[in-house]
Amino acid sequence: MKIEQLNTASLRKLKPVIDKPKYALTSVSCGVVHFGTGNFHRAHQAVYCDTLLNKGETNWGITGISLRSPVMRDNLAPQNYLYTLAILGETTSYRVIGAIQNLLVGPEDPQSVIDVVAHGGTQLVTTTITEKGYYLTSGGIDRAHPDMLGDLASISVPKTIYGYLAAALIKRSDNQGDPLTILCCDNMHGGGEHLQQGVQMLLERHSPDTLRWVEKNVAFSSSMVDRVTPATDQYLKDQVAAQLGVYDAAPVAAEPFTQWIIEDRFAGIRPPFEQAGALFVNDIAPFERIKLRFLNAGHSILAALGYLAGDQFIHEALQRPCLAQFAEQALKLNVMPVTPVPEGISSEAYINQVLQRFKNGNLPYGVLQVGTDSSQKIQQRILPTIDDGLSHGGDTSYLAFALGAWVCFIRKALQNDDLNDPLADEFSHCISANKGGSVAAFLTLAGANKFHFFKDVPFMAAVQIYHSNISEMGVEQAIDTFFNP
Ligand code: CS2
């Protein structure tokens, strides 16, 4: 028997235990345009918007934008953009989210993306385009990247987030449009500033007059977004179909925990996200820092160690006592002493909570998902902490070990054809060009040479030794040797 698909018609047939939009989907207008409508967005920010809509705020629907693949649009369009959020923890609950009203695919119709950002009803533009979507390099935005060169030459068909925003802001200012806030929701420091710099760079080139309008009318802001959200697999689709009684082509699973801390820098109308549980703060930097340096760093360390130990999921890596002990101590002994926390937060309690969340076996989270783009992620998550540790004369041995493990991870993942990283070709080349594929060469590719530790001879020697130990003994034995030299 063919099972019906989730959409506005089948919505009313769902069992009462399934939470559904309490608002009329047709009464929603889209005050938000979001770039990067993947799972992270759909399990997090879209849920905050959905909560506001449930509370009777009708302006905070979302127009989603995909800058690359049409897959999400193709999955969601037949469902009237409805999808299921499965919250998997000690208990399980299901909620159909209606906040996304439309989804555009940039390469198919760039002008419609420019138009929707320029549109008067749009109050807020948000991004989850992952680290590589910002084209960052040691000196800031990589002007030499082919996509950036393309946008520097012309933004009539933009290639980058900066190009889309610049083109839309030109149109918005030509229309004397309302103020706009552009808010970064990616896992990075100062995402709002990067967005501002990229937009400025392109406007200086293409429309210097618009720059003055932007200075007065556009706020670039950052936020800290937190909810563990795995990629969707067939198992989740089957589980959701069994619960809903209808088929959902793109459900998303997430942990019960959710947090959104937003820099209170808005132009024009600020959506009342506090009513949905978000927190507005004046200084976002300490919140970004604890998330990146404790949670995301912990994830990246466990992903590398777990992969090397043969685990598929983060919670499995944590079932190995030596990996669990290593991760906890790395965060408590190397990261904690050099990571100031916002007032009222205990770093120890924060770390304990993070590790507890990672143990959630009801929400398997792949080590290879965390290992995706690791060359970009470690630049935000691990490398700055090492410099801080060394400059404070603190212990950095765990982080040296983590870097050795990261190099082993890259090698093994390449060998197994598991590596998903924008620098995968460069890493392969580094090995095959018989540059020896040295530890320093791998780290240089990941931007480590712009950090002080790269010139710190004892630190780099330690990375080298740990790398050799892991390669020769295997990761668990190497950790054992690390603890009992
Ligand atoms: C993870 C993050 O995959 C990864 O790199 O570290 O996606 C992490 O799950 C989220 O930032 C949690 O909020």
From TrEMBL:
A Pfam family matched in the record: Mannitol_dh
GO BP of this protein: mannitol metabolic process
UniProt-listed PROSITE patterns: MANNITOL_DHGENASE
InterPro entries, per the entry: 6-PGluconate_DH-like_C_sf, 6PGD_dom2, Mannitol_DH, Mannitol_DH/Oxidoreductase, Mannitol_DH_C, Mannitol_DH_CS, Mannitol_DH_N, NAD(P)-bd_dom_sf
Domain Mannitol dehydrogenase C-terminal: from-to ranges: 283-444
Span of domain Mannitol dehydrogenase N-terminal: 31-273
Keywords carried by this UniProt record: NAD, Oxidoreductase
GO molecular function, a single term: mannitol 2-dehydrogenase activity
EC number(s) stated in the UniProt entry for this protein: 1.1.1.67
Name of the protein described by the UniProt record: Mannitol 2-dehydrogenase
Gene name tied to this protein: mtlK
